[in-house]
What we know:
- Helices cover 41% and strands 19% of the residues.
- The model has no long low-confidence stretch (mean pLDDT 93).
- The chain is α/β, with parallel strands linked by helices.
- Bound molecules: iron/sulfur cluster.
- Iron/sulfur cluster binds next to helix 10.
Amino acid sequence: MVEIANLPFNGKKIYIQSMLNIPSEDIENNVKQAIELEKAGCEILRVAIPDKSALALIPAIKSAISIPLVADIHYDYKLALGAVEMGIDKIRINPGNIGDKDRVKAVAQSCNQKNIPIRIGVNKGSANKGLVESAAEHIKLLEENDFHNIVVSIKSSTVTETIKANREFRERCNYPLHIGITEAGTERMGIIKSAVGIGSLLVDGIGETIRVSLTGNPVKEIQAAKDILKAIGKYNGVQIISCPTCGRTKIDVETIANELEKAIEGKNLPPIKLAVMGCAVNGIGESKDADLGIAGGNKEAVIFRKGELLRKIPENRIIEEFLTEIDNFVAEMA
Ligand code: SF4
């Protein structure tokens, strides 16, 4: 079984990854961003190592975080050897791009000695043939050196192509897969593309780690990754369902749902289901199905707990009283 630092890739948990996007010469701000990402819920963090001086990032970042760190290296096998020396937890490098077989052997041996996995990352933009074929060639080069501690990623900026290639790869090979849509774009389309691509694969049972690639602050990648996992029931956090509102709505569902989401963010609550529904039509059923829920009436709402009607609340007290009920519910769960 492949393991990165203390994280086993055994199919029981899907790990959220992200990547630092600060210039590599700025150690201080890279460390700062690494801490922010860990705090946001990043579970595996990648850093680009474009040259020898960037190797200094590895001990600096590792001493500030407790999640595994991955070095992203292209072409230069000496950087891979240097990263291993510096205590890296995983290396992303494509063995087919680092030159002759002795170099591949040196990297494989060095990683084998310290039980460090290598991620082969095949992207549409850099693959010289079919994505799956290209991954298979890189894998072969490592296996020839008795190296099997391998994670693979096969990414394209096209959602359907990524899904197809990963499905095809999984039918041929069992190495753990890191999945995502590469160069997915800015926040709006990037999240949609990632949700469709990553979500489809995860529903198929494909993918041990995920990254939502967004142009912008990587903390947003973590939030989006958590939301994708929540949407398919693979994240142990709070799930909020809220209705889209319609002509029957007589309370401000949008504000209540948004404020609720904001209020519970960062509270580190156990996996509970909350419902904010505009009226009794679907509201009572959905609210009863949740751990706690409200169903709106005329400028008021009824609150349910595990299907049991607790009381009526005037609209201006809904958020306050709902939050109190959540705190009570969670305290009783403990
Ligand atoms: S729950 Fe009620 S208010 Fe909300 S969309 Fe459904 S019918 Fe409309």
